[in-house]
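User: Please predict the structure of the protein below. I'd like the answer in structure-token form so I can feed it into my own downstream comparison script.

Assistant: Understood. Taking the following sequence of 311 residues as input:
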Amino acid sequence: MTHFIVNPQSRSGKGASVWAEVEKQLKLKHNPYELHMTTCQGDAVKLARQLSNKAKETGETINIIGLGGDGTLCEVLNGLNLSDKVNLGYLPTGSGNDFGRSMHYPSNILTMVERITDEPETMPIDFGTVKLGTKPFDENRFSVSCGIGYDAAVCDALLTSRVKTFFNSIHLGKLAYLVVGLMELFKMKLSDGYMVVDGKRIELQKVSFISCHIQPFEGGGFRFAPNAYAQDGLLEVCVMSGGNKFALIPVLLKALFKARLNSPYVHHYSCKKVYIHMDTPRSTHTDGEVHGPQTDITVADSGQKINFIKI
């Protein structure tokens, strides 16, 4: 059975109209399915947990398809009881859609629906985990990226910004990230700190942001980690440090236009695990979902794989 977990509020309410198109296609093709509509943040976690727990108990193989933004996919992933009985799929309807961009999804939603429902194939892909703070507690999973500093501050600002709603209404949601990003640049404060990358300590000064990637893109199309590959069992870590905050502008433009980030202030690391400490609290996010200011985060490749439905 195929279960759809739908966020109707994704892309400022456009998720509902996209689902209407998808449902029409499913009925036309007589594809069996069950619909689970979210009403608030956290619903997708609960629904995914209930469905995957039941599949594990009964031995039935199920497909769970998240329809929404990258945050919806992140919630579904965090709810999954991982087993060989559960396949995960995704139909992107959000503003950023960095997962779909990284995985080279087609632009037509109905083409995606056909590939998901007509004898779908699966592939194993990685996901990351992050612990916030220094005390052990439940890990948060992510499928695209997590970060601390400027990139997370932009995500935080977008949650309450009317700019995002406006650009989504005229189908230019990607520009919202650019406009809000420029606004946050002027407010940004740099921080010193250090990282421990697979056991090796690296001192850092004047950090703008550190992003840890499973997929190459984040922030609505900024390619901060061109070497990230979702099947290699590694994180790709992008560090922007050194220079003043306006040194970030050419880096952002290069990342947006997929050019090489050949800046003396940008460094990349491939690793299994990284511990990050900032001397002053900085915003944090996982797949665009914010967690508030932190000084310490631990990020790792989970060492596990998801059975992901190819599109």
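That's the full token string. DSSP finds nine helices and 17 strands in the chain.
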